[in-house]
Amino acid sequence: MAEATPASSTVLFPELAPEPEAPRPLTPEQADKLPHIHRLLLAYYDRPAARELWDPLTQLIYSLLASRTKTPVSHQVMRDLERRFTAGPGHWESVRDATTTELEHAIAIVTFPEQKAPHLKATLMGITARYGSLTLDFLAKYRTDKIRDWLEQFPGVGPNTSAAVVNFSTLRRRALVVDANHLRVIQRLCVVPRADAATTEHRLMRLVPETWDAAMLDEHHSLIKLHAQTLCTFTEPKCQGCPLLKLCPTGQRNTGELPLATPSEAVL
């Protein structure tokens, strides 16, 4: 059977607009901000294990289910879905065709299954309706920002999920996944002004060296996430002995090396 082609691809992916004017060059200090953090974390934790790259559809399903859920649980749910519904990895039509109730029971161990089950079903049905079959392999032909915009039209798919799909999958594009762990570390370090995850990713990408490819951005995120889960935890961060303490105003205040900001000094 011939592969389906998206009849409306010209609408989904219009001609490229003129590139915006280039931003001002970074200062040497700004340019070394993220590389310095990366070097310190790499020396402390060593290099993370290489990621197993999935096809973009499998990565999308994983990312939809993994939000606010521990990694081992997320991987277990993927295995459960494959055993219960599919003929093997990459064959997700049976998941799409299952009822919302069946999906909710199948993913019950993740956080918020009552929200994620209808989002997952609606997204898989939406991809099929827009492309003609359940695959995202065709996205490899398009520009990264257009891929992300297209993905974010589906229920439950925000900037964090779209970044994961383009960076962690076989698409292997430049993007920085700013999940809750990553955002917490960056905000405590005061690397960029405090903002939501999407704005923070945009600001951080301005600081990312041009030499960092998709794999390097993946490694950087993995180190930040590991640090957030190990030392820079949500409650009771272990600031004493942290490899980033000398760079971290929050950690320095927690350890008494910097005074707490007065109301007039606090940044709103």
Essential attributes:
disordered N terminus, 2 domains, mainly alpha, Endonuclease Iii, domain 2, 268 residues, 0% strand, 14 helices, Endonuclease III, domain 1, 52% helix, globular, disordered C terminus
Protein architecture, described:
The chain is mainly alpha-helical. It folds into 2 domains: 86 residues, Helix-hairpin-Helix base-excision DNA repair enzymes (C-terminal) (Endonuclease Iii, domain 2), CATH 1.10.1670.10; 113 residues, Orthogonal Bundle (Endonuclease III, domain 1). It contains 14 helices and no strands. Helix 3 packs across helix 13, helix 7 packs across helix 8 and helix 11 crosses helix 13. The longest helix has 19 residues.
CATH architecture of the largest domain: Orthogonal Bundle
Question: How many distinct beta strands?
Answer: 0
Poorly predicted spans: 1-5, 7-11, 260-268
CATH superfamily of the largest domain: Hypothetical protein, domain 2
- SSE order, one letter for each helix or strand: HHHHHHHHHHHHHH
Sheet of most strands: none
Briefly note the CATH topology name of the largest domain: Endonuclease III, domain 1
Domain count: 2
Strand content: under 5%
Structural class: mainly alpha
Mean pLDDT: 89
CATH level-1 class of the largest domain: Mainly Alpha
Shape: globular
Residues in helices, as a percent range: 40-55%
Radius of gyration: 20 Å
Distance between the termini: 59 Å
Query: Count the helices. How many?
Result: 14
